[in-house]
TrEMBL record:
Alphabetic keyword roster: Membrane, Transmembrane, Transmembrane helix
Keyword Transmembrane helix: yes
Provenance organism: Pristionchus entomophagus
The family this protein is said to belong to: Belongs to the band 7/mec-2 family.
The protein's name: Band 7 domain-containing protein
Organism ancestry: Eukaryota, Metazoa, Ecdysozoa, Nematoda, Chromadorea
Region: Disordered, residue numbers: 28-55
Length: 322
């Protein structure tokens, strides 16, 4: 059984307006259904989602924008022609050998990419440009207070050398490529040294610099920046720690010196023992050693000469006294 009902009030079912409805009975229940007769199919939404490959701007608005853009270009050219040659002072720009220029025309990057070096032409009112310096920038990283892996606080200075390799990426992908690279250099230095012990910091400077350079180069690749070199300039230790390390090193050196002196005395005593054994075998050798000692003393022009007398010479007198 099917009964056609009038359209419901707008305040109850707004989505059922201007549609015929039917009441059907199924199993003791009444169901209101909208009849599709005379209904036009729904049109697709005009705005597209950001995930689609189409642009976010409706085609009509894009067409209007293009028309106004062309109109502004025509008006700008007319203004340039009317004010010629004075307009050339504004339109012509000289770009140096180490510079490049990224030009935007009505907000869009013009075809051809970066311009320069030499002379370029700028259309007033619709062109904006940015100069990019391609020379190497040297940045002295401020002293960073770093806690090492073995819980020692040190102050580290470093120097970073980098340059702009892609002017278009440095303008389009980041607000300020130079400033962003400087901030990234500071954080990279802190993170890299925070994973090292104090001994590794002092002995592996080249490896630490290479690690920082690799991390920075990977992080700034999409910004159009090339990191040329990173150098760890200085690692300053706390004053108390410096004194403690100096005392430890001095004690270690004194211990090594005492060991060396003891080994020398041991070797000397062995040599003296061997010499005494040789002299004991021949008594004349002792007299020759006495004469050699006198010769050494006399060679220095001394006024006093000490002549050693063997004790055996007094043996006979001692026997007579007894």
């Amino acid at each position: 059984m099917t009964t056609r009902l009038p359209p419901p009030p707008p305040s109850i079912f707004p989505e059922l307006l201007t549609q015929p409805h039917e009441l059907s009975e199924e199993g003791g229940r009444f169901t209101v259904t909208a009849s599709m007769s005379g209904k036009e199919p729904r049109s697709e939404p005009q705005w597209v989602t950001p995930s689609s490959n189409q642009q976010d701007v409706p085609p009509d608005y894009e067409t209007i924008g293009m028309i106004f853009g062309y109109a502004l270009q025509v008006l700008s050219w007319i203004l340039i022609i009317l004010t010629f040659p004075f307009s050339m002072c504004v339109c012509l720009k000289v770009i140096k050998e180490y510079e490049r220029v990224v030009i935007f025309r009505i907000g869009r990057l013009i075809f051809g990419g970066a311009r320069g070096p030499g002379m370029i032409f700028i259309i007033p009112c619709i062109d904006t440009y940015r100069k990019i310096d391609l020379r190497v920038v040297s940045y002295a990283v401020p002293p960073q207070e770093i806690l090492s892996k073995d819980s020692v606080t040190v102050s580290v200075d470093a120097v970073v050398y980098f340059r702009t390799s892609d002017p278009i990426a440095s303008v389009n992908n980041v607000d300020d490529a130079i400033y962003s690279t400087k901030l990234l250099a500071q954080t990279t230095l802190r993170n890299a040294l925070g994973m090292k012990t104090l001994t590794e910091m002092l002995t592996e400077r080249e490896a630490i610099a290479q690690l920082c350079e690799t991390i920075l180069d990977e992080g700034t690749e999409h910004w159009g920046v090339k990191v040329e070199r990173v150098e760890v300039k200085d690692i300053r230790l706390p004053q108390q720690l410096t004194r403690a390390m100096a005392a430890e090193a001095e004690a270690a050196r004194e211990a090594r010196a005492k060991v060396v002196a003891a080994e020398g005395e041991q070797k000397a005593s062995r040599a003296l023992k061997e010499a005494a054994d040789v002299i004991q075998a021949n008594p004349v050798a002792l007299q020759l050693r006495h004469l050699q000692a006198l010769n050494s003393i006399a060679a220095e022009h001394n006024s006093t000469i000490v002549f050693p007398v063997p004790v055996e010479m007094f043996g006979a007198f001692m026997k007579k006294d007894n």
